[in-house]
Amino acid sequence: MADRKGKVYLVGAGPGDEELLTVKAVDIIKRADVIVYDRLVSGSILSRIPDNAEKINVGKNAGNHPVPQHEINKILINKALEGKTVVRLKGGDPFVFGRGGEELEFLHENGIPFEVVPGITSAIAAAAYAGIPVTHRDFCSSLHIITGHAKDGGSLDIDYDSLVKLKGTLIFLMSVASFPQIALGLIEAGLNPDMDAAVIENGTRANQRKFVAKLCDIPKVIEENQVQSPAIIVVGKVCALSGKLDWFSKLPLYGCNVLVTGPKKTSEKLVGQLSRLGAYVIEYPCIDTEPMDFDIDIKEYSWIIFTSSLGVQIFFKKLNEAKLDSRHLHNKKIAAVGSQTAEELLKHGICADFVPSKFDGKHLANELLRSGKITSKDKVVVFRAKDGTKELVEIFESSNISYTDVPAYTTKYIKQDKVDINNIDYITFTSESCVKGFAYSFDNAINSSKINAICIGEQTAKAARAYGMNTIISDAATVSSMVEKIVEIYCVK
After folding, report:
1. CA 331, 299, 389 angle in degrees (round to 5)?
2. What is the CA radius of gyration of the chain?
3. CA–CA separation, 366 vs 94, rounded Å?
4. Same structural domain for residues 164 and 232?
């Protein structure tokens, strides 16, 4: 056991949309040694946890606590006593029916230092994503958040008479199962059975569902639509505004299910753009990349070519490790296979001397040769994936160009748990390796005729066609163009 104590951070993860995490929450999660998380923390947030952090799932379902509260308390204390930075990650806000106060009391009693990072509660956020302002001066002057979950299996303790007299917006959390009883209690206390109400399932997440109805009909709505937690129920006149103020369901990719196959470390941009447009994104990294050892002595070369942004990152990391920087590239011409690779070069203070009109190795090589920028007098070094397409170097070979092919990184396939692709609208592939990795994950036994493959270029599409997939190629070999293509074809379905 370490001599020094660690620290526990009680962090609210918000309602699910990862972009609703606070800046402070993101910073602490990045620095954590251990993350102890609940069921309500969304998968998109969990995917952002650093790989070197220990993740402990203490998730709770209604009526099912696989890890009892006293065990959770022990985990927090034991990890802190090991001198570790511990994040107790809870859905929503940890002090809004999240038992955060109870856990902190236990830490206090055991002398464990702690901090609290509030989160956005689903009581406010889910309603906002459903177009329901929880307060509005034309309708109400108060807001009340009530739990529909009874402690330790006891009966509900709700003062229905007082709630009805307040004439405010009522928001019920953890109330899907108990709402028939709650609705009856409100009506018996004098609330109009025809009062506007709404139930919002998976609020702020791309698979959010919203149902607006009269109070008396909400229990039937929950049953008929098989509404599951997490869900909130809003009762009040403000629910009538949902029709005209609902912005979330009007996003262009709302209801669209997209599976992203690229490596976790390079898919963030694609996942983010799709999510912001309303798509339900499943991250399914089928490949991973590992840097290789290579020589960075480039004195003899006149041209340096990078075929990916990852290659640029690895090259400069190796350069920095050798106590060198961009000045090492003095008097060299630099070519980038596409705009994203060029953008990565700019981060290191290098403006690419050449980017082809079409972002692939074939066009890069041919246009460099046709333009006379590279001739037989040049010596070229290419930094690329070990198992990447060889079109570029083969063109140099056939044109008698002196080149050195340097494998900067290698690609390996990842065996993922199989996902049900029947409800997936599109699967994105940013490389030939992603296609092969996806097929490998399914033991090459996939119903390819049902797959609409969004491919970043012709080489990737060729690999997808080999498996019988329906291929759609983005207009440009960029992540943004792939997203634009999905919007274009989804919106005309």
Report:
1. 95
2. 27
3. 58
4. yes
Please report the sign of the dihedral spanned by the C-alpha atoms of residue 317, residue 433, residue 342, residue 378.
positive
| Cα separation, 160 vs 405, whole angstroms | 75
Nearest by Cα to 218 from 210, 230, 229:
210
pLDDT band at residue 2, thresholds of 50, 70 and 90?
A: very low
Say how many C-beta atoms besides its own lie within 10 A of residue 445's C-beta.
8
User: Which amino acid is residue 147, in one-letter code?
Assistant: T
Question: Which CA distances in Å does 248 have to 124, 127, 203, 402, 466?
Answer: 15, 11, 10, 55, 38
Is position 251 within any domain? no
Predicted confidence at residue 394, as pLDDT, reads 95
What is the count of structural domains for the chain? 4
176 exposure class (CB count in 10 Å sphere: 0-12, 13-18, 19+): buried
End-of-domain residue from the set 120, 146, 173: 120
Question: What amino acid positions are annotated as catalytic residues?
Answer: 38, 60
Residue after which a domain boundary falls, among 361, 376, 410: 410
Which residue do the tokens 């038992």 mark?
A: 99
pLDDT digits (tens, 9 = 90+) for 178-236: 999 999 999 999 999 999 999 999 999 999 999 999 999 999 999 999 999 999 999 99
- Residue 359's CATH number: 3.40.50.10090
Q: Which domain holds residue 421?
A: 257-286+414-490
Residue 11 is encoded by which pair of tokens?
């962090």
**Inside any domain, residue 196:** yes
- The reply to whether 429 and 282 lie within a common domain is yes
Q: How far apart are the first and last CA of the chain?
A: 60
In a domain, 300, yes or no: yes
- Candidates 463, 302, 426, 293; CA nearest to 376 is 302
pTM value is 0.83
